[in-house]
Amino acid sequence: MHVTSIVNGVDLDRLSGTIAAVGADAALARFQFRARNHWIDGGYSRTTIKDFYGAGQDDATRTEPFTVDADEPPVLLGQNRAPNTVEYVLHALAACVSGTIVYHAAARGIALDGVETTIDGDLDLHGFLGLDGSIRPGYEQIRVTITVAGDFDDDQFAELATLVRYSPVRDIVSNPVPVAIDLARG
């Protein structure tokens, strides 16, 4: 009888199988995620996310797209119909560093009772509004506080602190990523 081992909600047999498969065939590690956005009004838009390429093929497991709306608060001329885009960046970072810790802790056999992530980002509108070319339009600084709970020793806690280096979103917001933008007539 085979017993599946689950740590932090992660199936360790599947995780080990994924690691082995990617280790044996580097092409399986290549993913392409896709999103399509439709502007609705003012700062309000809707993005659909459904298909992606990964593990050597286009994924067909999603029968319906996820929809994500973005808007602005009234002080930024929106109607508060959804979080704004820079808030979604904070959400993505929080979810990614938390998930990264959970998965990597599970792979190391470190059971967690909880992970809470709080993020603050500082942004100066002078950059976005084009009022000062020396100020970037995006975040100037992001502060992340992660609180982990569980029965682990000091060495395991120290190891947990290093795991965020594997977070894809932390890497994306910390390092330049080439972005190619094509503007076409509709």
Write a compact overview of the structure shown.
This protein has helices at 12-24, 85-107, 125-128, 154-162, 168-174, and strands at 6-7, 10-11, 32-33, 36-41, 44-49, 52-54, 57-58, 66-70, 114-123, 139-149. The chain is an alpha+beta fold and 186 residues long. The protein has a three-stranded antiparallel sheet with strand order 3-6-7, with no helix packed on it. Strands 4-5-8 form a three-stranded antiparallel sheet, with no helix packed on it.
Written overview of the protein:
There is one protein chain. The chain is of the alpha+beta class and 186 residues long. It folds into two domains: 31-81, no CATH class; 83-175, GMP Synthetase, Chain A, domain 3. Helices cover 30% and strands 26% of the residues. It is built from five helices and ten strands. The protein has helices spanning 12-24, 85-107, 125-128, 154-162, 168-174, and strands at residues 6-7, 10-11, 32-33, 36-41, 44-49, 52-54, 57-58, 66-70, 114-123, 139-149. The protein has a three-stranded antiparallel sheet, with no helix packed on it. A three-stranded antiparallel sheet has the order 4-5-8, with no helix packed on it. Helix 2 (85-107) packs across helix 5. The longest helix has 23 residues, at 85-107. The chain is globular. The model has no long low-confidence stretch (mean pLDDT 95).
